[in-house]
Design a protein that fits this description.
Layout lengths: L5 E4 L3 H15 L3 E5 L2 H11 L3 E5 L7 H9 L6 E6 L4 H10 L3 E4 L3 H13 L4
Parallel strand pairs: 1-2, 1-3, 3-4, 4-5
Helix pairs in contact: 2-3
Length: 125
């Protein structure tokens, strides 16, 4: 896989901007789109066909767990890594139950994202 296309799902505009910059500048991965809600995330996955979704857990309306469950029901779903400010065992269990392929605390993103991508896609970043 040459380029891993990334979709970012995050309701904080400030954090979303930082995420885009991190992946595009630091690693050259194309961020093909973003969504600010779970419902929008499902639509964007169908429309943009990303390889990887970084999914915020806490969002208004449909949360990241519900959106991940729906995304994983789609044909050829992307990999999904959950992002949260609340790194606790309950969230990790709920992420796994929703079908997520990984779980990263937002505070550890720059350290953990490259490892997660290498594990999921076999590429180093």
């Amino acid at each position: 896989m040459d380029q891993i296309k990334i979709l970012l799902v995050e309701d904080s505009q400030e954090f979303l901007k930082a995420l885009k910059e991190y992946f595009q500048r630091s690693h050259g991965f194309p961020v093909v789109g973003s969504a600010e809600s779970g419902v929008s995330a499902i639509q964007k996955v169908q429309e943009l066909k990303p390889d990887l979704v970084f999914m915020d857990i806490s969002m208004p309306g449909m949360n990241g767990f519900e959106a991940t469950r729906e995304i994983k029901r789609l044909p050829n779903p992307p990999r999904v890594i959950m992002l949260t400010s609340h790194d606790d065992p309950e969230y990790r269990r709920a992420s796994a139950a929703a079908g997520a392929d990984g779980f990263i605390s937002k505070t550890d993103l720059t350290k953990e994202a490259p490892l997660a991508i290498k594990k999921l896609f076999g590429v180093s970043i």
